[in-house]
Amino acid sequence: MIDNASKDKTIDEIQKLKVKNQNYKLKVKIVQNKNNLGYGKANNQGIELAQSENILLLNSDTIVLDNAIEKLLERFQNNKNQFQFIGGKLLNQDNTPQASCGPFYSLPMIFAHLFLRGDYWGLTRSSPNQEKSVDWISGACILTKKSFLEKLNGFDENIFMYMDEIDLLYRAHQLGYKTLLYPGAYFIHLGSGSSNGKTFPIIQVFKGLKYFYKKHHSPLSCKILTIMLKLKALIGIILGKLFNNRYLIETYEKAYQVAQMD
């Protein structure tokens, strides 16, 4: 277990769990980072230390329902190499479906996400009720083989949080790997359990998109992305001023600064 400088007594609870289950020989290796190193780097630490063939990446703000891990593993092991990455069906705290997979973020998809409420209409992310081959699944729950992750050199540690799983699965796609959303295994994902409020995710998504496009796409595509991000930020600032909303103003002023970065 990688603890990214948590402040909620996580380590104490894990130690209690080890003592409580000592008769079952519960083996838990704990790595305590002094600082929050980000999603990708912390996962890379765990992947490197893991000694098993299969790796389950599971967020700290998830609740496993009805033997979901066992169900996910069984489906993965019986897949006959049809796919190399699999994710379960994520639910919100009230048990409603949580959109957790989708197509890669092409420029049209980013436009739909920023200006057309793409998530709301299921254009940019969705929660299928049937098994579905998808471009990406949420990093909150990903099961794969350690060998696949090693071939990809793990997560890109330059991405602190958000877009890291999309970058990973984009590189996997380039190697011919496939990804499956399996709705037979349910996990509650509380959301924002590893981030700070609403501003932080927006800023990280802006940063992640900028980095992802600079890494994988042409200079022209990067310029078009920058224009869209600036426009989105300006709209947020204008709406904030119209409705006297300090949150919108401050958040999208920061986002605009990120959009301007090279």
UniProtKB/TrEMBL annotation:
Keywords: Coiled coil. Residues 2-81 form the Glycosyltransferase 2-like domain. Residues 7-34 form a coiled coil. The keyword Coiled coil applies. The keyword Cell inner membrane does not apply. Gene3D superfamilies: Spore Coat Polysaccharide Biosynthesis Protein SpsA, Chain A. It comes from the Bacteria. Pfam families: Glycos_transf_2 (PF00535). PANTHER family: RHAMNOSYLTRANSFERASE WBBL. This is Glycosyltransferase 2-like domain-containing protein. It comes from Candidatus Roizmanbacteria bacterium CG22_combo_CG10-13_8_21_14_all_33_16.
